[in-house]
Amino acid sequence: MQHEVFANTEDFGGPDIVAGTGRVSKPGVDAPYANYELGKPFDEMFAPDGQARAPYAAIDSRVSSLPLEELNRRQQAVEQSFLHQGITFTVYNDNQATERIIPTDLLPRIVTAREWDRIERGLTQRIHALNLFLRDIYNDGRVLKDGVIPRSMIYGSKHYRREMRGIPVPHGAYVNICGSDLIRNEAGDFVVLEDNLRVPSGVSYMLANRDVARRAFPAVFRSMGVRPIEHYPLELLATLRSLTPFHEDVSIAILTPGVFNSAYFEHAFLARQMGVELVEGRDLLINDNVVYTRTTSGLKRIDVIYRRIDDDFIDPLIFREDSALGVPGLFNAYRAGNVMIANALGTGVADDKAVYAYVPRLIRYYLAEEPILDNVETFLCREEKSLQHVLGNLDKLVVKAVGESGGYGMLIGPHASQKEREDFAEKIRADPENYIAQPTIQLSTAPTFVGNGIEARHVDLRPFILHGAETKLVPGALTRVALKRGSLVVNSSQGGGSKDTWVLSQ
Amino acid sequence: MFYSIRHVTRFRYSGPVRESVMELRMQPRSEGPQTLRSFQISTNPRAQLYAYTDHLGNAVYHFNLLREHEELRIEAQATVEIGQMPAWPDKLDPLEWSRYNDFNLSDDHFDMLEPSRFAKPSPELESFVKIADMEKPVGDPFTALKTLQRGIYDSFDYEPGVTEVNSPIEVALEQRRGVCQDFAHIMTAIARGWGIPCRYVSGDLYHKGSRDRSAANATHAWVEAYLPSLGWVGFDPTNNIMAAERHVRAAVGRDYSDVPPTRGTYKGDADSELSIAVSLEPTQAPVRHEDFLKVARPMVSPTPTASMPERLYHQQQQQQQ
Q1: Nearest to A316 among B110, B309, B315 (CB)
Q2: B19 to each of A4, A331, B261, B276, how far by Cα in Å?
Q3: Omega of the bond prior to B45 within 30 degrees of 0, cis?
Q4: Nearest to A274, CA basis, from A247, A252, A259, A294
Q5: Residue B102's CB: how many other CB atoms inside 10 A?
Q6: B249, CA 20 to 30 Å: which among A292, A471, B147, B207?
Q7: From residue A400, how far is each of A158, A160, A426 by CA, in Å?
Q8: Distance from CA of B136 to the nearest CA of A (A)
Q9: Residues of A38-48 as b/e, b for ≥16 C-beta within 10 angstroms?
Q10: Contacts of A369 (CB under 8 A, 6+ apart)
Q11: Chains A, B: CB pairs < 8 Å
């Protein structure tokens, strides 16, 4: 017992106990779940009949034994900890930049060992297929010749980098760091909503959330066999190192757009955790096709760059000439093999809306396997059967133009008028190749502390996949929460928060 | 036919600059009737040159200069042999249109069908196409391209100074004036709209005291269109001629932005002034340096816009005429 108290001196909750599983809370009835609504979406904690699911029993029994004030106190301690660590992002409003903490929630989201196993296998399969696809379109173009994916979709993509054609990439690994957004559908199955293959962010929040959630419910945490994620920076470092043929004196740098970037905290955090340089474009220079960083003791060679800058801005000599963030000549040093860049350039061509719809086919084409994780069901209007289905069900579907982003050329069927739907049907018929359709997406809900109790809020799941000489997933993820009741928007810029994700070892 | 080609490119800066990085696409290609016999390139201040072949098969040289400098001079000297050009038929049969199919077209062709940065549709282009009656190609693709070339030649005056290196084609379309770069982009955009793969060619033209409108002391640009039964065929809308023995090809791309002869950045709070001298003469033997020194009028590069808080890199390019 003495040991228990000692171990908990850092904990927000003070000495904590596992209260056993005697009590069974009812959502919508018992405090603190009085306002917890179970709807059509899958709920992470409660089964449709209101029974708490088994993995949540311990956390339920602890939470419901605590007075509301105590929950509030722990929530504040969690937020204080974020503020002290500087885990903030910048909100731009009326020309004023305000530093805000990413709202974080006290209560963990739990993923069982079985669920995680499927996620891990599914995402590993997916990143293999996507890397084979990238290697193919930047070399032989077999997938285009075989007609698996239309050419115009690749050549018309603004993320297709012709400069990458024929350039060898170590281990054929174009995407070294990937953050895939998963959601859980009404049936309770995880499906992939989006692949982020360019410069995915959020992994620092995954680590920070663990740090606070572990301290908010220390005994529950220890009792549950939650798999550790703290080694992520080491795994990232190993992945970056595996890109060079050298074993000693490998010099690595994180290239950040600078302090005004909303993810700057993460760049600094990862650099510190890995013990590598944090540089901006102006800190680097190219001499005789080799990359150097300016240091107080002269120039120091850089072998691997983990870049957190978009392709467009990375080298003003080759890409956007008005970029002041990049390093002129960097791409030629990369072409010559004198520096490795993670992620490789040109990965964005594989994560746009249109290509997304083809990923299940790409998995079958390159791996001759069935996809382990499904996509959100997507209808390609270029295919006659799908077109008829879309036209017949416009009131139930969301239709998107593939070339557009940010809501342009989009029809949200259930919210559109009859006239709008008819007009849009005309557009689809005129140019079916340009449209895809999906059912309206439901995110699952998870218990979230809202100040006067615990309510259901929509969540997604972003695991991070590392892919160099080998593929690795740290058993954890960023669970993003739409903090407004009923909202499906989990982005931190629009009122989203996050919570810790506990992947159980069994 | 042998040609000796010499390019002298000089950047003068209004103050000291440093960390210049530059790419050069000046080496004549060696393919088809054209053979590169010799090529030399040198810079002053001296720099270590590196080279690679880009995905379009163009030879690219690049270098950097760390030290402060106020002038940068690049000299390129090439000897090129141009053999017998194929004789084009007067016209093709209309079935040529049906030969634009997956069997005849490869990845390289498809990439030359999509709109690109300078060669893309716009309301200005659409209205020009309407006025010039070019909405639909007339006759077989080859005849249609010749008609298009003639139409552009007749509709536009050749006049340097109206457009700049980074001008979109809309400027030339509004003014009905421009230089070879603009005409090549306009022809490319229209022909791609018809479904004909087209690429931009950067190079030099031997002027021979002819009726050519283009300037003799500058680099030249024209268009190559793909005809399934003939291959890539060169059209020079600036001079309303087929590209033939007088056209020396240096680089091909989707449009100018893929193949500028020089492209570079430097650091320093200074403006740059670019002057170019080009000489291209028939030759039998390697030519002596002092035979060439026709310096073109200086061209000031467009002032860079200060869009970033700390804008130290400046882009510099030359317009093709």
Answers
A1: B315
A2: 61, 16, 20, 22
A3: yes
A4: A252
A5: 10
A6: B147
A7: 18, 21, 14
A8: 20
A9: beebbbbbbee
A10: A125, A363
A11: 71
Q: How many CB atoms lie within 10 A of CB B291?
A: 11
In angstroms, the CA A206 to CA A284 distance is 30
Ramachandran region of residue A237, left (φ > 0), alpha (ψ -120 to 50) or beta? alpha
Please give the C-alpha separations between residue A129 and each of A124, A361, A365, A374, A380, in angstroms, as whole numbers: 9, 10, 9, 14, 20
Helix B180-193 to helix B123-131 angle, to the nearest 10 degrees? 80
Would you call B297 an interface residue with chain A, using a CB distance cutoff of 8 Å?
no
Q: pLDDT of B100-150, one tens digit each?
A: 988 888 878 988 998 999 999 999 999 999 999 999 999 999 999 999 999
The pLDDT of residue B69 is 96
Of B48, B55, B310, the CB nearest to A165: B55
Q: What is the Cα–Cα distance from A93 to A72, expressed in whole angstroms?
A: 29
Q: With 80 as the cut, is the pLDDT of residue A221 above it? A: yes
Angstrom distances, CA of residue B187 to CA of B121, B129, B236, B237: 11, 10, 10, 7
Chain A nearest CA to B56, separation (Å): 9
* Interfacial residues of A (vs B; Cβ cutoff 8 Å): 141, 144-145, 151-152, 155-156, 162-163, 165-166, 282, 285-289, 316-318, 321-325, 328-329, 332, 335-336
State phi, psi for A346 to the nearest 5 degrees: 85, 15
The pLDDT tens digits for A278-287 are 999 999 999 9
Give backbone dihedrals phi and psi of B202, rounded to 5 degrees, phi first.
Answer: -105, 135
What is the nearest CA distance from B130 to chain A, expressed in angstroms? 23
Phi/psi of residue A432, nearest 5 degrees: -60, -30
Q: What is the pTM assigned to this prediction?
A: 0.89
CB A361 within 8 A of CB A126: no
What pLDDT does B294 receive?
Answer: 42
Q: Among all residues of chain A, which has the CA nearest to that of B266?
A: A328
State the ipTM, two decimals.
0.85
Asked if A175 contacts A197 with a C-beta cutoff of 8 angstroms, the reply is: yes
Domains, chain B, ordered by start: 2-82+260-317 (2.60.40.2250), 94-258 (3.10.620.30)
Q: Match domain A377-439 to its CATH number in 3.40.50.2000, 3.40.190.170, 3.30.1490.270, 2.40.160.20.
A: 3.30.1490.270
Mind listing the pLDDT tens digit of every residue in chain B (321 residues)? 899 999 999 999 999 999 999 999 999 999 999 999 899 999 999 999 999 999 999 999 999 999 999 999 999 999 999 998 889 999 999 999 999 988 888 878 988 998 999 999 999 999 999 999 999 999 999 999 999 999 999 999 999 999 999 999 999 999 999 999 999 999 999 999 999 999 999 999 998 777 888 888 789 999 999 999 999 999 999 999 999 999 999 999 999 999 999 999 999 999 999 999 999 999 875 544 445 444 444 445 555 454 444 444 566 666 777
Q: Which of B96, B138, B44, B116 lies closest to B233 in space, CA to CA?
A: B96
Q: Which residues contact B243 (CB under 8 A, 6 or more apart)?
A: B201, B222, B224, B233, B234, B235, B236, B249
Q: What are the sequence ranges of the domains in chain A? A: 377-439
- A283, A293 contact by CB (below 8 A): yes
Placement of tokens 């791309």 in the chain: B253
* B26 phi/psi in degrees, rounded to 5: -125, -15
- Which residue, B277, B276, B308, B301, is CA-closest to B17? B301
In sequence order, what are the residues at sequence separation of 6 or more whose Cβ sits closer than 8 angstroms to the Cβ of residue B300? B271, B273, B274
At A357, the amino acid letter reads: A
Q: Do A336 and B110 touch (CB under 8 A)?
A: no
Q: Are strands A304-307 and A252-255 parallel, antiparallel or unpaired?
A: parallel
Contacts of A58 (CB under 8 A, 6+ apart): A18, A21, A220, A223, A224
